[in-house]
């Protein structure tokens, strides 16, 4: 039965009862008493309705804190329906609050900046990423014009032109941002910012690397092509000149091979930041091998010594050998004849340490922080003379990164250099 029907039936029954009561009272005590009692009963009914109406009005004034009465007659049904409505409303409110909290949390975690502005660009809300991208502060800047906060001519032009269908690449506060304005609702706009500083830096590095690598490969190729041209144009060249040319060509070929090998090593190291497999490295065997190679490279022109006083470590034998060999080879290549190269392997509180100290040409302080960049050389011609690829220390840096070790460089021009590798204490293998 519909609530409306219940309401009408219950009220009609009540009225009917009053009329029947009036008729019975009239027949028992006369018409005057009958009407009087009927009126009293009607008055009671009306007062009851007024009482519940008043309670309803009180409740509507403050539905959250005041309680609805249980009701009487048709009011029972009205109140129970109001209760139901309120419960649903409370449930919806809770759901909405929870959803809003989740939405805010998602916006807080979003790496992209989101700024909500009104139609005249007054800041209404922004997330933490937007605060950091654009230097905003929601607490302080709310209600201020975004164009007064993001002071950039490029951004102003973008706003003035209003061509929001294409994003703007904005250079702002040492960052590169892709900014996009999206109008929404009737009078609001969202400004989205995406930080591309890091990817731009990587792209730039990649472009530089390709340019440098091409340049490095072009030089030996030019030399080889030059000699090949001479050989084809002057077939009657004497045997001594021809063999000298062949020797130079094979040197340039070897140089290209070293370059390609170093580039491949670097690419392999860069593609994985962490070591996949580690093994026990027998440091005594490895360092004695490196010492022998150093003697061979120096060909008796330097005094090379090894002070072995450290433990075995865990790591990749091939990678560590290649890094330490690079450092020792550099010490020989950049130390004039009769110089000394001291290699040492020690253990301390911070962990095991490898050091190679030379009394060679040394390095000026302004170059030191850049030595591990790819193709960075202090003196290009000297590096080429000594068969350098310019990639040695970049390879060392990557190998050490994968072993959580650090490279320390200490050098004074014309006095000498000290390259140390500090391994973490947990790399030690207890004897
Ligand atoms: P390269 O193949 O040119 O030697 P590296 O990456 O091994 O490239 O070294 C980068 C630069 O660091 C070298 O070109 C050289 O200028 C400098 N360098 C490295 N080791 C030494 C050293 N022991 N003494 C002086 N300069 C050094």
What can you see in these coordinates?
- Member of the two-component regulatory system PhoR/PhoB involved in the phosphate regulon genes expression. PhoR may function as a membrane-associated protein kinase that phosphorylates PhoB in response to environmental signals.
- Keywords: ATP-binding, Cell membrane, Kinase, Membrane, Nucleotide-binding, Phosphate transport, Phosphoprotein, Transferase, Transmembrane, Transmembrane helix, Transport, Two-component regulatory system.
- Its EC number is 2.7.13.3.
- GO terms for molecular function: ATP binding; phosphoprotein phosphatase activity; phosphorelay sensor kinase activity.
- With 431 residues, the chain is of the alpha+beta class.
- It is built from 14 helices and 13 strands.
- The chain folds into four domains: 3-99, no CATH class; 110-195, PAS domain (Beta-Lactamase), CATH 3.30.450; 199-270, Orthogonal Bundle (Helix Hairpins); 279-427, Heat Shock Protein 90 (2-Layer Sandwich).
- The chain has helices at residues 3-29, 31-61, 74-109, 128-134, 138-141, 146-149, 153-161, 197-233, 239-271, 283-298, 317-333, 365-368, 380-385, 392-402; strands spanning 113-118, 123-126, 168-172, 175-184, 188-195, 279-281, 303-308, 312-315, 340-348, 351-358, 406-412, 416-422, 428-429.
- Strands 2-1-5-4-3 form a five-stranded antiparallel sheet, sandwiched between helices.
- Helix 11 runs antiparallel to helix 14 (392-402).
- The mean pLDDT is 90.
- The site of adenosine-5'-diphosphate (ADP) has 22 residues, from helix 11 and helix 14.
């Amino acid at each position: 039965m519909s609530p409306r029907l219940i309401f009408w039936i219950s009220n009609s029954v009540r009225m009917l009862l009053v009329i029947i009561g009036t008729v019975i009272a009239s027949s028992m005590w006369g018409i005057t008493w009958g009407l009087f009692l009927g009126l009293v009963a009607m008055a009671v009914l009306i007062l009851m309705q007024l009482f519940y109406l008043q309670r309803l009005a009180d409740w509507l004034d403050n539905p959250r804190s005041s309680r609805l009465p249980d009701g009487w007659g048709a009011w029972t049904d009205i109140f129970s329906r109001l209760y139901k409505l309120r419960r649903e409303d409370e449930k919806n409110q809770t759901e909405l609050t929870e959803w809003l909290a989740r939405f805010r949390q998602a916006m807080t975690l979003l790496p992209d900046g989101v700024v909500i502005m009104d139609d005249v660009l007054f800041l209404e809300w922004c997330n933490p990423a937007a605060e950091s991208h654009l230097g905003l502060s929601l607490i302080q800047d709310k209600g201020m014009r975004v164009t007064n906060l993001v002071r950039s001519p490029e951004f102003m032009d973008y706003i003035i032109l209003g061509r929001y269908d294409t994003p703007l690449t904005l250079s702002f506060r040492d960052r590169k941002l892709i900014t996009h304005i999206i109008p929404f609702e009737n009078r609001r706009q969202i400004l989205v910012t995406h930080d591309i500083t890091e990817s731009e830096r990587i792209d730039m590095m990649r472009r530089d690397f390709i340019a440098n690598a091409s340049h490095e490969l072009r030089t030996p190729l030019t030399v080889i092509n030059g000699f090949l041209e001479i050989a084809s144009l002057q077939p009657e060249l004497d045997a001594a000149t021809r063999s000298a040319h062949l020797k130079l060509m094979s040197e340039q070929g070897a140089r290209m091979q070293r370059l390609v090998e170093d580039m491949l090593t670097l690419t392999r190291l860069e593609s994985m930041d962490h070591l996949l497999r580690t093994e026990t490295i027998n440091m005594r065997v490895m360092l004695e091998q490196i010492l022998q190679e150093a003697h061979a490279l120096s060909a008796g022109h330097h005094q090379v010594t090894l002070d072995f006083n450290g433990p075995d470590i865990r790591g990749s034998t091939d990678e560590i050998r290649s890094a330490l060999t690079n450092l020792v080879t550099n010490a020989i290549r950049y130390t004039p004849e009769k110089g000394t190269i001291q290699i040492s392997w020690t253990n301390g509180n911070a962990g095991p340490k490898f050091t190679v100290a030379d009394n060679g040409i040394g390095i000026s302080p302004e170059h030191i922080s850049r030595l591990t960049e790819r193709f960075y050389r202090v003196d290009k011609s000297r590096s080429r003379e000594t068969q350098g690829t310019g990639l040695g220390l970049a390879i060392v840096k990557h190998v050490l990164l994968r072993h959580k070790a650090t490279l320390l460089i200490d050098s004074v021009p014309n006095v000498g250099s000290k390259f140390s590798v500090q391994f973490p204490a947990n790399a030690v293998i207890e004897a």
